[in-house]
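re: that complex we talked abt at group meeting.

here r the seqs, copy pasted straight from the sheet so there may be weird spacing, ignore it
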Amino acid sequence: MLLTYLARRVVLALIALAGVVLVAFLIAHMVPADPLALVLSETATKDPSIRAAYVKRWGLDRSLPEQFLTYLTNVVRGDLGESFTTRRPVLRDLTQLVPATIELSLAALAVSLVFGIPLGIWAAVRHNRAPDHATRLIALAGAASPIFWTGLVALYFFYYVLEWAPGPGRIDTHLTYPPTVTGFLLVDSLLAGKLEIFGSAIQHIVLPACVLGWFIMGIVSRTTRSTLLEVLAADYVRTARAKGLGESVVIGLHALRNALIPMVTITGLNFASLLSGAVLTETVFAWPGIGRYAVTASVRLDYPAILGVTMMTAVIYIVVNLIVDLLYGALDPRIRVQ
Amino acid sequence: MTTTGVAVARGLAAAFVRSGRRPRRNTALVIGLTIVGVWVVAASLAPVVAPYSPLDLDVMNRLEPPSLAHPFGTDDAGRDTLSRVLYGGRITVPTAFVVILVASIFGTAVGAVSGYAGGRLDEALMRVVDVVLAFPSILLAMAITAALGAGLRNAMLAVVLVSWPEFSRLMRAQVLAVKANEYVVAARALGVPTGRVLLRHVLPNAFPPVLVKATLDVGNAIILTAALSFIGLGAVPPAPEWGAMIAAGQAKFEYWWVATFPGLAILSVVLGLNFLGDGLQDRLNPRLRTD
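got the structure back, here u go
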């Protein structure tokens, strides 16, 4: 039973991955320009020998389905073409930049859970009273603010007016990056024993992480609230209360444990929102991750780069959700039956 | 199609009447209707109420802070921000509405067919939906707009292309639930053709949640279109589009009003739409009530 479940999830994920590459391929074919302009810079398209080499590499002289197969094979081998802007293989750019995005996203996720879960509990416990309405308003406002604007407002107040937070970027400009081991600055600076860099990195990540975290905190608090309300109506919670247990024990030990299981799924589904939000947060905060790379690439019509980021984020999303599905199957045996 | 329209209207009316039997305070609906109503009126009357033209340059009054003459200040070309925010509503609100109208029609059609047909067709359509949903919407929209070329029309098309799949998932689930009802089984047993069963019996009853989602998605479409314009892929300056206006005020902290007011415009209209969606949800489907 468990094996069938696992196998089905993995097969579905593989189909979705192939579909993602197909979508990227189709977008590349929507471009009205010379298809070689997709993979070659302007000067290179004029050189016949380079043209011929690329026609062969991407199978451009063959039928569309064959072209797709070539594209798929190249992508699977990690060949996403070269960026016109950086003139380096897109995959190399992405692997260098992705840790910054993941670091920011994880920090934002932590912010959203640390604030969202208690807010959700508070709303459920004070159901239909002032705290409940307040958290509903917070959630609605979070969903209604354009993140690129929230980021600017946050920078205005905390950097320009109050001078509490440092400006955009990952560390102070006078500091140099520690040697790259993991790519996560907070880890690498500690590995190198550079506490000054670590401190600067912490200061720089707080504001963008809060902006991005605020963006999904509403979803976290609303989900916590609704699942907790559901669980609070369950028989075993009534039993716990009937036994005379205190309210904090009933909620903290009995109810919350089951209420938080769906949070695993929500976190997985939120990963797409998180990555979407990261794109614009990185742009506003000059954060050197794949989101800012994608924005620069799309404005300069650097197709290999923008399609590379798009595919990579979709792959991250599919893999995260596959892990979430598997985790959920392990946490809640009822799911496997479906 | 008109008969479907009538049936959908009748279904919605019935849902409203059902909910009206137990009069209950629906603050969210009232707040939402008020905010969205004010914006619709302000945007439609912009040529009358706006104090200045949204495009006229006034180099003598560049980057003026808010004052009585310019309540929201002026931008770096001396254009009046209040007038531009009001005119911006004429671009943003109808754009998002059209985008979601198209996306919801296409998405629900796919979902309805998928749920009603079942089997392999259902499986295939849902895999397509999965793939589109795997992309972060802003990135997919950016890639599509970059491929088609920057501009508001292409940005709108991109937002349609990323917005339809969730409607399919929702509609499919609705159709699966409605399909099992006796009146649908009866209609099929009577030999009513499939298309007619879908349009006359299934669709109207599956419609209320789609309306709620569409309301919320108009807000999302506003944010997404503004984001594309902010990046430089959507509306082209000097068009008074809110996202583009925020981009113009970026990194000019001493001139805070340039980016603040268009941002507040987005925030307020989207908040209004979110309240409206929440309130509609309470009204149309008491079982799905958020409390």
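couple things i noticed - Chain B is about 75% helix and 0% strand. Chain B has one domain: 3-52+78-288.
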